[in-house]
Amino acid sequence: MESSYVRRGFALAVTATMALAACTQQPAASPAPSASATPVAQRGAGGELKILYWQAPTILNAHQATGTKDNDASRLVLEPLASWDKNGQALANGLAAEIPTVANGGVAKDFTSVTWKLRTGVKWSDGTPFTADDVVGTYTYMCDEKTAASTVDVCEGVKSVTAKDPNTAVVTYSPAQPFYFQWGVGFNTPIIQKAQYANCLGVKAKDCPADLKPIGTGPYKVNTFKPGDVVQYDLNENFRDPNKPFFKTVTLKGGGDAASAARAVFQTGDVDYAWNLQVEASVLKPMAASSTTGRLLTSYASSVERLLVNFSNPDASLGDKRGEPDTKHPFFTDIHVRRALAMATDRASVASQLYGDGLTGKATCNILTAPTAMESKNSDSFDICKFDLNAANKELDDAGWAKGSDNVRAKGGQKLKILYQTTVNSVRQSTQAIMKSNWEKVGFQVELKSVPASTFFTNTSPDGANHFWADVEMFTNSGDPNPTGYFRGWTCKTATGKANNWNGSNYNRYCNPDFDKVVDQMAVEADQAKLAQLAIQANDILIKDVVIIPLINRVAPTPDGVSKALKGIDVSGWDSVMYNIADWSK
Amino acid sequence: MATTQARLTTATVKADMLRPPRSLWTDAWYQFRRHRLAMAGLAVLSFLIVATVVGPYFWPIRIDTLDYTIALQGPSADHPFGTDNLGRDIFARALWGGRVSIAVGLSAVFIAITLGTLVGALAGYFNKLDNPLMRLTDLFLSLPILPLLLIVIYLFRDVLRAAFGPEVGIFIMIVTVIGLLEWMPVARLVRAQFLSLKQKEFVEAARAIGDPDLAIIWRHILPNTLSPVLVAATIGVGGAILTESTLSFLGLGFPPDVPTWGRLLYDAQNFIDIATHWVVFPGFLIFVTVLSINYIGDGLRDALDPRKT
Lengths: 586, 309
Description:
The complex is a heterodimer. Chain A is built from 13 helices and 21 strands. Chain A is α+β, with helices and mostly antiparallel strands. In chain A, the strands form 5 sheets. A 7-stranded mixed beta sheet of chain A has the order 7-8-9-1-10-21-11, covered by helices on one side. The longest helix of chain A has 17 residues. Chain A is globular. Chain A starts with a helix and ends in a 23-residue tail after the last strand. Chain B starts with a helix and ends in a 5-residue tail after the last helix. The longest helix of chain B is centred in the C-terminal third of the chain and has 37 residues. Chain B is about 75% helix and about 0% strand. Chain B is globular. Classes of the chains: A alpha+beta, B mainly alpha.
């Protein structure tokens, strides 16, 4: 999986988010954000836009970002070639004049190169012209390992980025990359000015003064920046759209906590936008519902909290062979046991009790939930997606697993004893309690284990999710807008084990040649509709075969609060929330 | 007249001589009973121990019964301590958790005291052992606790889990780890007491009549060092209960479904403003337990102090 690190990082971020995440109560009644951006009447007519981030930005170069706060604060100034819209489609609101496709010749048929046509006449905020050299300069900067850019993951597999002419940049991949927008689209590849960063390449990238006041092509430019406190932006007079942006200045204030940020947008109306309101659902919901000043923004993408079923044998007595892909799990190799486990999984209660039924997540039985066109509708009718303890009991009875005096089922001396691990996190521990309670009712014996997130997501740790020395484990992961790489994480070749230093992304050690065939087809499919068909097919195989038991589609990126007067916000789960800030108005 | 009085006096003296000799412990008990707070502490602690040991057999609700319809309810007749976010009965969980927490507290401190007293006594009494043992104490004092815990847990968790099962295995591990991390202050206290006491006349007298070293340590010096040790122990119990909750917090303690008092507090922390009862009851139980143990320690110290009779 090309961006497993990205995902791991994401999982971590999500985990951190979950630490305070929601519990109990009813669905969020947040009105859908208006999709159509009102045309901006006049540049700079809007006065000041007030944004509150309870984590303050510390750097304004997204390539050195230490968190979402830095990415977002940087996005007002630095733009990528294109953005991701909420449907996971590339959106030409950045430096590219149009989105390359196979049809328009921009994307090579074999997915080895992408030719980007850039907008003409774009100027940096200092008045100098923007050219394809700046795109190449950005590549040189961020993909040099010595730069230690936080965005370096998207460089994997990128062979080169070259300037064909001043208005054309070519990205070449080796090997072929079906997710050909990996480099160039979204918050990981904002284009920096080559001239400004000329002295900040490689090891010199550390403590580069430009990081605190980057020159950009975005709708705003930095006026003053106090790291860890506040950023003041002014309108960029050189911005390419003469009518945008609407606001004359933007103040992005950092500090405080999520609860006070929620009050600032919902109760006092002090700010126009408040980021990441990770407050208990039962606290947040009434506050948002009764607010006259603000509303809650929630959007969904591909973040799914899931249970993984181990196909290898995690028994410690195997020594060196423990959890190796060529071992067989003592009872999960029996499909009936896996099916029973899935049928005894009460995802609806988890969604309503722990995720506020839509406030921070909703129940799902798909492992791929976005882009919407690729989400399977079939799983609704799968018997294993319905919580039914009787059916689960029957499944095990029929398969010959008989209950013993201790209420634990066994067959041929093998007891159904499960070790179920996840990270230390109150929502996850509550999820574990719900699972355990139901699984024990159908004759599993469940032992719970929780590991600190930092250990759980460390590849070298024996308690790591990638070693998976347990029977069932739980975490959140998400895919790219093109799910090929995501599904590659369940193919035989990527099975994690000693041979690849547990860096394989197939933690389940699942191996099914039929599934591999579907993924191989996906890797060469250029037609979006056919790709969606294949993705649905891949999703359904994994669900029906109970390789994973999806639980919750989590809100991504975060539940934010926004002033009711503010128009034009259209959150995308795939990109920075600031991706269309030029369109925001009042 | 005079003869009658003389007879009476003799009778009193005789009666005095007939009374069984007063030992250190009967003396202490006599003193202890007069310490009201200590007696109250003893009563409360005994009550808590009995309640947590016997209670779960009588309380009809299991610790893991989920009922979402009654989630986060305040105290009521059915649920004296209210319910948590999954509708589990906090009273049942607090009773069960008390068993674990009190057991961890007492056993860990027992290990710490035993080890600390042993090392302190040997170091204080035998000059030759003093330096090596005290350097060992320094070594343990300078160990960074968290990395040490991580190593211990990686090395022994699976072994103990396989040998004793997940709960007992972790119990042994936690109690040992806490005990091993808490003995150093006790060792230093005991050594200091020994250093001063072994110069005293009664020790010299004991040596002069040929008592062996071990007897001198055991019968003459050790009882006199009890008071600081007991104070350290009582403080240690509260510390051990809290250390266990820290471990749970880091995911290094008991499995997450074992409701120790520390775990209950950890689970409840996010709900402090909407379900205060969830935090208050386990917190109060920890508080009461530590407080009563401290009073018992106080009473014991007074009772065992030879200067206070």
